[in-house]
C-alpha cells in the first residue's frame, strides 16, 4: 500500500518506521510527540487532514444528534465510522478503509436513521486518493460506487436515488472526492520535486564554489606565498647582514619595513586560503558575503581579499579599527616619503555597524595604496579627512596625480611606478553601495578627488552603480 | 527487521476485525424496532397487542372510544399512557418521538407546522433520505402512525383538549 507514496516535507524529516499503514509509517514520530514543539509541528504539517476530518465529524455528529440511529447494527456501524473519522488524521488509510466498510455495511442494514454516511464516504475517498496509489484509489471509488448501486438495482427504499440518472450525480461526487485527494497529492509531489531540485542545485553550486575556491587557494598559495616568503627571508638575511651598524640605520629600517609587510601579507594570504577552503554554510548563503580589499601601502602590489560575514555586527571589536587603519596608512605613507595630512574628525556612533567601520578601515588602506600608485612624493601633498557622524562616515581624499602614473617607466631612473590592479576602488564601490552608501571619484586639473559616504546603519540593499570608476 | 512490525500490524488488524465481526453478530441478534413496518404496510397487516379481559375501567362519555383505542394499542407505551384515560401533552410528545423514530428508519421525519404566533397547526412529513415513491411513503406513514399508537393517542389527545376547552 505504501508503493508510490511520496512522503510530505514533515514526514520526510521524521524517522521512517515500517508499518502496515503508509502514513503511520512515514509519520511514526509524529504520532507520539514528546514535546509541544513536536505537537505544533505535527499540527502544522497535518492541518488540512485535521480540518477536513473535523468538518466530516461535525456534520456527522450534528446529524447523529438530530436523527440518532435506531437499529443497534446501524448504531454500531455509525459509531465505528465516527471513530474512524476521528482517527483519520493519524492513520488515514486504515481509517479510510474502515469508513468504506461501514458505509457498505450500512447499506445492508435497512435503517436510514443515524448520520448520513456520505460525509464519511467523501472523506474516506479523498484520504485514500491522497495517500494511496491510483489503482487503490480507483478500487476504493469502485467499491463505494458499486455498493451504492446495489440498492438501486434491488429497488429498496434505502437507495441514494430511485433512478440510475440520479445515481450519476452521486457517483460524480464520489469521483470528485477521490480526484480531489489525488490532485492534492500530485501538487504536493510537484512541490517536493521542485524543492529537491532546488536543494540539489544549491548543493551543486556549493560544490562548484568549493572547487573553485580550492583552485584559487592553491594558486594563491603557490604563487603569492612563495614569493612573499622569499621576500621576507631576503629582508631578514639583509637585516642579519647589516646587524647593528649605525651607518646603515636607514637601510635597516627599510629592510625591517619590507620584512614586516611581507610577513603581514603572508598572514593575510594564509587567512584567505583558510576561508576559501571552508565549505559554504547555510548562514553564509543567507547573509550577504562581501569581499573587501585591503592593500598594503608598502608593497603596493599585493591586494588580498577578505571574506567577511556581513551579518557580523561586532561594533566593539571594530571600534578602534578605523583609528588603527588611519594610523597605519599615515605611517606607511610617511615611511615611503609621502607628505600630507590624514585626520579623523568627530566620534564614531556607539551603534555604528561593524561592517561600516570595517569597510571604512579597508577603504583607508586602499586610498593609501592608491596614493603610492598614482602620486609621487615630490609633486605635492595628499589630504585625507574622515568625518565620523551619527548617520554616516564620510571620507574625502585629494592628491595630485603624477604625470607617469600607472605607466611602467622602465627607461627612467626613477623607481618604477606600481602597476595598478584597477579593481580595488570598483570593489569598494560595490560594497559601499550594498551598504547603502556611495563612493565617487574624479580627476580634475591634475588632482585626484575621492569622496565616500558609508551609512552607520547599512541597509544591505542592492543599489545601482553610481559615480565614475577608478 | 521490517517483517516484525508488519506481522504485528497484521495480527492487530485480524484481532480488530474479529472483535468487530463478533460485535456485529451479537448486535444483529438485538431487536430491530420498526423493522416490520414496511412489510406490514405492504400486506396491510398489523400486530396489535393481544386483547384481554383485563383493561382499565374507563368512565365518561368517551369510555367506548378509550376502550376501542386500548384494544388497538400496539405498544406497551401506548397502553401505559391510556391507563388513566387521559393523554397529556408530555405523553403525546413521547408517542410522537416513537412515531418519528419509526419514520426515521425509512428516511422520513415528521415536522410540526406552526402559525405566525408559534402555535402548532398541524404537521407534515419530510423525506430526509432514501428513494421511496409517494405511495410507499404514504403507506409507511400510516403504518408508523398505527404501530407507534400515534394515530389513536393523537385523536384522543385532541378530544381531551376539546373537552378541557369546553369545561373552561
From TrEMBL, chain A:
Keywords: Kinase, Membrane, Transferase, Transmembrane, Transmembrane helix. Residues 9-32 have a biased composition (Polar residues). The chain crosses the membrane at residues 47-66, 121-147, 159-184. It comes from the Bacteria. GO terms for molecular function: kinase activity. Residues 1-32 are annotated as: Disordered. InterPro entries: HATPase_C_sf. This is Signal transduction histidine kinase-like protein.
Automatic annotation (TrEMBL), chain B:
The chain crosses the membrane at residues 12-30. Keywords: Membrane, Transmembrane, Transmembrane helix. This is Uncharacterized protein. It comes from Bifidobacterium saguini DSM 23967.
